Amino acid sequence: MSETIIATPTDKPIITFTRTFKAPRALVWKAYTEREHVAQWWGPRSIGPIEILAHDFKPGGSWRYVQDVRDVGQVTFFGRFIEIDAPEGYVNTFGFEGPFGSTEGNEGRETQRFEDLGESTLYTGTSHFDDFASRDAVVASGMESGAREQIEQFANYVLEMEQ
């Protein structure tokens, strides 16, 4: 298993998340896109449990997940699936509402890519922002530890699926 690399380039208002999983792309794709599997790894478990309310994985379909964040309350994450190019990747929107505010009507865009390396899969997730200030505010929020935890949960789940 490799380490997760999180990068914030100086020339684009994006955050990239990169990780190589020791599993074939078909398995990684299945675990990343099917509702029953997403429920097993999405959202950092250290801050609370997750419930999948909607996960209609098709172009134009919506997704909605609720996480009970300890000592804070419920945070709802939501978006739409814009483009799907199975098993190469997909594009979705991402927003949230809860005690930290809301991005309703101002959702971000994310791109998920899965490169076939034979017995391994290179994953690259990209969060796109309108400007550097927005990107830097997300980075300053401490999102990195949660993102690393979620990606690690995914890596462990894919290993379990292989057994």
UniProtKB/TrEMBL annotation:
Which intervals hold domain Activator of Hsp90 ATPase homologue 1/2-like C-terminal? 22-158
Q: Note the coiled coil stretches, chain numbering.
A: none
Which protein family is it in?
A: Belongs to the AHA1 family.
| Name of the protein | SRPBCC domain-containing protein
Q: Which organism is it from?
A: Pelagibacterium nitratireducens
